[in-house]
Amino acid sequence: MTSPTETTVRDLERRRFDLIVAEEWEDFAALCDAELRYVHSSGIIDTRDSYLEKLRGGYYDYHRVDSSIESMIVTPDLVLVRGTMAADLRAGDREISLDNVIVSAWVRRDDAWLLATHQSTPA
Hints:
Helix content is 28%, strand content 54%. It is of the alpha+beta class. It has a single domain, classed as Nuclear Transport Factor 2, Chain: A (Roll), CATH 3.10.450.50. Strand 4 and strand 5 form a beta hairpin.
């Protein structure tokens, strides 16, 4: 049986990828913890602010993101999500297709779940 927390975080995972493809930066920012660390498959690490700056400035332009969740570890204030992500995007002046394994961590802040960590590794 799926818990309400698991359902919520599954929905948030799907929503965050939909928002970056739709370029809805303010809504995406609202899902991110102030201490977000976004680790790209290239090894580059962005903070919340640096990642949002790159998104808003057009450095990253996501054309498509397909993701699946393989498993979750759910605790009262932290959810770890393990899955896959395939994406087509432009990073700087390069068009890239990704096929990655991902781990993300969602933390409960007050009554909201926020993305605290995302790490991508080539599959």
